[in-house]
Every structure is written in structure tokens, then in C-alpha cells.
Amino acid sequence: MFLTFREEVETALHEALSSLSLPTDDLGIETPPEGVDAVLASSAAFRLAGEVGAPPPKVAVDIADEIDASEFAYIADASPQGPYVNFLPSSAYYDEAVTSGQDDEYGRLEPSGESVVVEHTSANPTGPVHVGRARNPITGDAIARILDFAGHDVERHYYVNDAGRQIAVFTWAYETFDEEDLPEPERERADYDLVRYYRKGNAYLEEADPEDVDEAETEIQTILQGLEASDEATYERVSEVVDTVLSGMRVTLDRLPAEFDEFVKETQFMFDGSTDDVVERLKESEHSVYEEDAWQLDLSEFGFEKNLVFLRSDDTSLYTTRDLAHHEWKLDNYDRAVTVIGEDHKLQAEQLAQALELLGNDTEKLTAFHYSWVNLPEGGMSTRKGTGIDMDDLLDEAEKRAREEVEKRIDTRIRDDDLTEGDIDRIARQVGIGAVRYDIISKQPTKTITFEWERALDFEAQSAPYVQYVHARCCGIIEEAGGEVPTDIDPSLLDSDAEQELIEVIARFPHVIEEAADDLEPHAVATYTRQFAETFNTFYRECPVLTADDDDLRDSRLALVAASKHTIANALNVIGIEAPESM
Q1: What's the CA gap between 130 and 387, in Å, rounded?
Q2: Alpha-carbon distances, residue 425 vs 350, 411, 419, 471 (angstroms)
């Protein structure tokens, strides 16, 4: 409805401006502020006032006079208000919103035919996932979900760094130290087990006698050289460590959840020759220089002060070199490539994009999505030193605190159903992990945030539980009505302000998905869910459903509740948050 309504508004404005012999390149369509009785408005009169030689309010009147709303299915009226032209929806708009909203897939856009690869998380497989990097898998997963719901053919990739120095150190340490040299693992899981070797190895390299360190460094360098030479035996040694750690990390990522279609290994682009190919082509570039015993790209012409090193003096490639080959592979196989990456890698991402362009790639197809950090009041994190807070600890604590909140509310629940221990466990997981995700997704990605339990688990405020409760309430109403939603209803009975405003919010959902996908803004969907919850709660307070004045009104309101249920469930799902049926 909303998308079709907008198309009609575009057509109406284009025809009106054309009839007035005015330019139609900028229609100025926007969402009016709260309190304005319109779904869309046009600010074109501002832009055209100088050309017409009249004040904007007079231009707005002229534009509105040229629009015949009767020619359109969803436009009821186009009326001037100061310098704006406001567009009001017809009864057909409201009727169809209630009907369409009851579809299980409501809000999903038509297939675009565009393939998109979203690379996110890609944390080095050196130990358990830490809280400081939580924004990457949570935001990346939400972006992938939104793009999928917006009709794109999406693949989710995790790029595995299995060729760098850290992995060589890890492999050497795993083969060198014995179990008795290590402390007890924090959890009985592969990543917690093996990270002890990594930490032991780094401590050894910092504290051991210089000659012992030199011996260790020689072995580490042999591993790196073996990978560079595409030695299968070396690859198998490294893979044993990498794959084992990843198996544990995936358990944590599944809890979030953060889903992946493919784990793409860095060594793939060394063994298939594509990294060597990138090196040779970069050497031929006019921007290529050999300085300080390394091949580099001098990118000063493009505003970069720092050169991009792509080959060491011993002919070993760098992470960036392999990543160039990786990105060319993505650009060759997908229409669009989105990489979710921390703000500390912004310069690298910009240099990489410039290098890709010099290699002849269409970098318009490439988007780097940058995010800032998630902090906890407890302080910073370091996998190498073994300090900080693991994601599993955060999620365990979230479920524990959510369970406490649920148990506190059991005696005051309105629904007449008995929650089993299994139900409480389920709700605690849905609410607890939902709270973590929502608190992270709801903030603009470029802003550093500090996670706070009280805010995240507040059932009465701007939080996941507050929104999730709307879905549970809808389910409760439908269940109390017998589980059946009438289909033969009269939507025109839904004429109160609270009902009309709720229908308008429902109708706007596909547009929210479209904009969030176009702009890569998952926080916009989170904002929408909060606005939806506030609007639904007003409807719930002011418009009795099961005790409505008559059966026809009861049935119409029940249909509106069903449309609300599907809308909020799908809105939560596209940002990876479960919608509980009871709370």
C-alpha cells in the first residue's frame, strides 16, 4: 500500500508540475512530522518559489489545485498546508493495509534479481568471540536479513584469516606445549580449549630467553613460508587448529544468531594463484614502488599519506594482498559486495578500494559498512592476553537476568496460562538475547555504545522486551478469541484515531524495509519497532478488542491485531530478534 501510494503521489506531482510547466526533477516527497494529518507531503514549492516568482504557500496551492485525487486509488486528498502539499490516504489504503498485514510474509519485497554477498564477523580464529567485537556479527547478520527481506539474493560469508602470523603462532604453540603446561579451560568447548595454547605461546614469545624466542620464530616463519608455497602438509597443520577453533566460535555465533552460508579461507586465494596474480599486476602499476625492502603502492595521488605494502622482501604476501584477491573474487561472482568492518580498519578499507580500482575493478559495487565499538563498564578486551569478557559470558548473563525479570512478573501476568519451566527458559533466551541484539542494533553504527543491563532489559522502555511484549500480547488476544481470525470484516469500522494511526504504521513497514536496505541502516528497523509498539499500545488501551461494542467491530479489530502480529514479528525477525508468543 505505502509503496503504491508513494508511486501515486509521484505520478500526481509529476503531472501537476508538468501542467504548470514547472521542472519535475525534484518532487520533494517526504514523510511529514508527527501531528500532521498526512502520510506523505511534498516540499517542492520551496524549490520552485524562485522560479515561479511567488511565495512557497502560493505555489503549494497551485500544485494542489492541479491534482484530482479521484483519479487515484489510494489518494483521498491533496491539500496545501503552508509551503507543503499534504497527501491523505483513501479508505482503500486502510482496507488493504489490514488485509495485507495478515500475510505471513508481509513486508517482504519483490525479488530484485540482484545478488549480494555480505561478509561479516570474520574474527581471527584465535579464541572465543569477545564482547568488544559483538557489533560485527549482530549488525552484519541484521544487514543480511534486511537485504534478503528486501528481495535480494543474499549470501553470508565469514572470511577466515588462516594465513597470518597469529595463526602461525597458534599452530606452533599447539604443537609445542603440553596439556599440563596450561590452565584449566574456562568452558568445555573447542575454542576455549585451544585458546590456552595461543595465550601460552604469546606469553612465551614475550618472556622466554632471546635464543629460545629466536628458535620459536624460525619455526613460525617456516609455517608462514609453507603456506606461501602452497604446501599441503603445512595447510593441514594450520587447518587442524583453525577448524577446531572455528567449530567452537560457531556455537557462540549460533546463539546470537549469526548465520553464514560459507566460510571462505584466506589460503584459498594463495593456493589458487590469484594472490600471485594480484602481486604481478600491482607491480606493473605506475604507482608501484620498491621501498624499505618491500613492494608498495604509492597512493599519495589519491590523498593517502601511507603507502600500501603488498609484498615483503622475502616474497611473502600480506593480509591486504590476499584480501585484494578475495575482493576481486567477490566482485566477479556477485552484483554487489558488502563488508562489515570496524572503524579501526577504515583506512585499510579505503586503501583496498583504491587498489581494487587501480586493478581495474568496478568499486561502485563494493560497500564497506563501518561500525564503532561496544563497551562494557568492566573495561577493554584482548584475546592475545586473555583478558576481557567473552560473548558467551554476556549471553549467559543476559539469559539469567531475563529469567529473573520473567519470574518477577509471573504473578502479575494478564494471560490465563501456566508457564512451565521450559516456557520460562525459552522466554528467558528469547528476551535475554533479544535484549543484547536490540540494544546494539538500535544505535547508529558509527556511535560507540556502552552496554547497560538496566536499559536493555527494561520491559517498559525502548528495549527488546518492550517490543517483544507487543507480539506476545497479540498472540494472547488471538488465542483468547479461539485462535481464528475472521476474514469477512468491515475495515471501515476501524475509524478511531488510534486504529487509523496503527493501520498507517502497519502500511509503512514495506517502505521501512526498502529504505533500510537501500541505506544499510538496520537501526531504522529497530526504531520502527519501537514506534510500532508505542502505537499498538495506544490502540490496546483505547480500543477493546474482545469486548468491543458489537461483533462486527470485534472482528475488524481482531483482524487488525492479526495484522499487527505479523508486522511486528517480521520487523523483529529482520533484525534477528525472536518474537515470543507468550511472556
Answers
A1: 10
A2: 45, 17, 10, 18
